[in-house]
Q: What sequence folds into this?
């Protein structure tokens, strides 16, 4: 391997414009020399910005550097250059799965499987993603799946308002204790209590901040994470409504969902449900 | 060493239309590291509260396994507070309701890299 790196380095030194930067970058990546691999690849791409294999390599280096967003962008570029590129489809499926975007992961892996070359790795990954989606979908969030007489179980207050398995909503009281809804993590766990504990005091801090700036009463807080968009709005009696959706959800839709959930929470707290 | 290591970041943010204040705040204790404020704005209090909100967002995202928080915005009828985090620092912008949030978001996310670099120099 070290000989390969030396040979390829010499070759690149002799002809800096060659495409040998890809096997050299790959060899360095496999050796774990990620910074050097990145440097070589970026320099190569400066000369060959439309070379799909170069972007594919950059994506794989980005995964090794735990920069999934960068990896996704690079594979997206590969797909633009070479539609149906198997490596890019597999890679984007992997990134989406890691980010909990199961529906998109299934789309990319299905497209990869449709290439028809019988790649066992793709088939196995696709099965894994479908299993994960089934597990999330089977969580008892649909009131119609509840046992008789439990239609008004507060855990399912927002079940019919939310449109996708990757959306989840939670109503907290002023102390951050869960009143209704659930906060389902991408792996299916309800982490409502943990999230509530961390968000305790948000309403008060937001109110004080807007008061100091004379902005009026706050109406919403939205924050973006690596895998989700989380939106919050104040609720009755200093409560807090929290909605989480996947990053793929347009912000306009997030607002609509937040408004619908808030209305549902108001009616429930007012004893109208 | 410059006494205003974040000056260029803050200046570029406050040049945005409808942005009324930009601050670099320590997330841990909410203390203002550097700021561009309009006369009369209570920077210290707002900084502490914005840092507190950002910290709560970050910790709740951590509890839910959602990864790192990139951008946060608080909306009220009279304006917005936007924030991004970089290391132990939070970059906070206060803006009027008419502000182009998309533009501010892009500027803030772009500034995070500079914030980390400048923060590294002063650390």
A:
């Amino acid at each position: 391997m070290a000989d390969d790196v030396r040979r390829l380095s010499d070759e690149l030194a002799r002809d800096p414009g060659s495409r040998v930067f890809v096997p050299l970058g790959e060899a360095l990546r496999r050796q774990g020399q990620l910074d050097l691999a990145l440097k070589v690849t970026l320099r190569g791409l400066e000369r060959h910005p439309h070379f799909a294999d170069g972007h594919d390599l950059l994506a794989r280096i980005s995964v090794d550097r735990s920069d999934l967003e960068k990896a996704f962008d690079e594979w997206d570029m590969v797909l633009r250059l070479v539609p149906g590129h198997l490596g890019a489809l597999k890679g984007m499926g992997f990134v989406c799965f890691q980010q909990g975007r199961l529906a998109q992961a299934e789309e990319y892996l299905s497209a990869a499987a449709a290439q028809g070359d019988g790649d066992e790795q793709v088939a196995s990954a696709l099965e894994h993603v479908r299993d994960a989606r089934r597990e999330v979908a089977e969580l008892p969030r649909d009131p119609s799946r509840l046992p008789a007489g439990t239609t008004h179980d507060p855990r399912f207050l927002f079940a019919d308002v939310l449109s996708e398995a990757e959306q989840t909503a939670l109503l907290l009281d002023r102390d951050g204790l869960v009143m209704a809804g659930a906060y389902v993590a991408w792996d299916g766990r309800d982490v409502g209590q943990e999230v509530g504990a961390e968000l305790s005091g948000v309403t008060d801090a937001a109110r004080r901040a807007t008061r100091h700036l004379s902005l009026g009463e706050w109406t919403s807080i939205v924050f973006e994470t690596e895998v989700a968009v989380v939106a919050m709005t104040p609720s009755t009696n200093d409560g807090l409504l929290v909605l989480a959706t996947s990053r793929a959800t347009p912000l306009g839709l997030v607002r609509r969902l937040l408004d619908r959930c808030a209305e549902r929470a108001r009616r429930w707290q007012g004893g109208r449900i | 060493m410059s006494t205003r290591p974040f000056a260029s970041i803050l200046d570029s943010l406050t040049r945005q239309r409808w942005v009324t204040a930009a601050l670099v705040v320590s997330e841990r204790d909410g203390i203002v590291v550097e700021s561009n404020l309009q006369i009369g704005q209570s920077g210290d209090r707002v900084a502490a509260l914005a840092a507190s909100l950002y910290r709560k967002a970050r910790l709740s995202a951590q509890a839910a396994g959602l990864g790192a928080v990139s951008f946060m915005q608080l909306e009220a009828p009279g304006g917005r507070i936007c924030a991004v985090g970089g290391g132990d620092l939070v970059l906070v912008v206060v803006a009027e309701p008419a502000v182009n949030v998309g533009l501010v978001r892009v500027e803030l996310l772009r500034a995070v890299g500079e914030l980390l670099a400048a923060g590294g120099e002063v650390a």
